Amino acid sequence: MQKNSMPPLSILAVPLKSKGRFFKEKKTHIRSDFQRDRDRIVHSTAFRRLKHKTQVFVNTSGDHFRTRITHSLEVAQIARTLCKYFNLNEDLCETLSLAHDLGHTPFGHAGEDALHNCMKKSGGFDHNIQTIRTVLFLENRYYEFKGLNLTFETLDGLLKHNGPIKNKKKYDKMLRSNYFKKKINFLLSPSLEAQIASISDDIAYNSHDLEDGLKSNLFKIQDIENIPVLKEIISKHKKKIKKFSADLVIRQIIREIINEMVKDIIKSTENNIKNLKIKNLNDIYKSKYPVVNFSKKMAKFDKKIKIFLKNRMYYHKKVKPNTIHGKKIITTLFSSIKKNPKRYLNVSKYDKSDIDRSICDFIAGMTDRYAINLYNKIK
Model's pTM, two decimal places? Predict the structure, then answer.
């Protein structure tokens, strides 16, 4: 019986055969280069810790609110849908989606702000660059090398989560100076797979934070029904509240928001490929504009949702005390560990020449729960 062969990838896709890794490894016929990358992320300690890291609500505040790990899985699902439509490298796209938040601190963006303040004199902190530190240096699972030894294509996509990098100063401070040498061109645009992972992050963030905000009663359906795009969706489902539970209606609204955003990206990206005369993968890398993006109408919606969530959810009076407390925990931990690093760190595992960065790595890797428990012991 003949096996079904997979259709060849689009000429715009990153090929299934990688350009390589920093450390040479034996190939396997069982898995492709990018399947191996994805599996290394899934089996990493940093990925497991995302289970107990805040998305918006501190992990101890409820069983059904999203954490970084559920967010990453949701990003991967949306990204694979888009990748499949465009016949791209799904394994690469899934890897980037699952790995994009590995560098996040406990307590979400509040933790990141606090850690950046602690590190101001030592190069600062950025969760996207911390993701790269995690996969390059901090995960230790192999005899032959430190890190996960991911493919150059995966590293390129993670580095360019927010697009091409024109100023490398921050990267040179947080990573080893000129670490990538000529392996990665920072000025080129990211692959379509990386652009899809990035925009899927936006879709998942906006839609699912809306759902968590509604379910936690931080705001109500009527508070969002005048936002463009949402107006039509909500008016269609609002009348169903008499027949179905509010929870179910909210889920249907969120499903439709995601669906509308995905359809919009498909249409917009197809137009961009045509209008920018994209013929091959090289054209993707050389493009000065994002090839994967929202239409003007959907971009306006995306911006309004972000502003709404910032004002009505992230800065809500019920959420703010946790934000303030999270910052206090991070700041206290940093100063306490700095006074006596050997008490808290296995110093032999860390870079003795830059103890501040080692403390930063230690704290960034903590879960909310671990940080809270350690803070309670030392305060």
Answer: 0.93
